[in-house]
Amino acid sequence: MDFSKLTLGDKILGGCALVLVIDLLFLPWHHWSYSYSSGDIHVGGSFSRTAIQSPNSFWGWLAMLVLLAIIGVTIVRRFTDTALPDTPRPLPELTFYATIAVFVLLFLKLILKFDYIGFGAYLAILLAGGMVYGAYLDRNEEEGAPSVGTGDGGTATPF
């Protein structure tokens, strides 16, 4: 693998995406602790749930699927000579929108059940924001990419 093919946006996007996969699979999104003491009896414990476990596991799984698709497309674009299918919009722009979708899905998971939030949830939101930034940089670094707000390859035309 030739990592010199990666742009700064790809490096930020890929780094945040890989750490986010670990976060979604292993870090606690919801953490409950309990304890009971009565005389000589002491009972206590805790348990945690990851992003792909309940509550609202649907949003975590959906974010994971979109995240894996983003990673796969980025790897194929940068490290192989495989021709990807033509899309109505440029791939960097679609990747940018997909990262926004991951951010929104994780934010939905966070706000729909805001009790007993673990540190994995906050870290995931930061990582998803980093992915959006990396995809934004990648979209703007792409050669020949049209400027935002124009429809003809980068030159603005009057009405």
Could you please describe the fold and organization of this structure?
- It is a single chain.
- This protein has 159 residues and is mainly alpha-helical.
- The termini are far apart.
- The chain is elongated.
- Helices cover 55% and strands 11% of the residues.
- Helix 1 packs antiparallel against helix 4, helix 2 runs antiparallel to helix 3 and helix 3 runs antiparallel to helix 4.
- A two-stranded antiparallel ribbon has the order 1-2.
In short:
This protein is mainly α and 159 residues long. The chain has four helices and two strands, in the order H-E-E-H-H-H.
List keywords for this structure.
159 residues, 2 strands, 4 helices, single chain, elongated, two-stranded antiparallel ribbon, mainly alpha
Low-confidence residue ranges: none
Q: Write the H/E string, N to C.
A: HEEHHH
Shape: elongated
Q: β content, as a range?
A: 5-15%
The rounded Rg comes to 20 Å
Q: Please bin the fraction of helical residues.
A: 40-55%
The pLDDT mean sits at: 89
Strand order of the largest sheet: 1-2
Please report the distance between the alpha carbons of the first and last residues. 47 Å
Query: What does the largest sheet look like?
Result: 2 strands, antiparallel
The counted number of beta strands is: 2
Structure classification: mainly alpha
Contiguous helical run count: 4
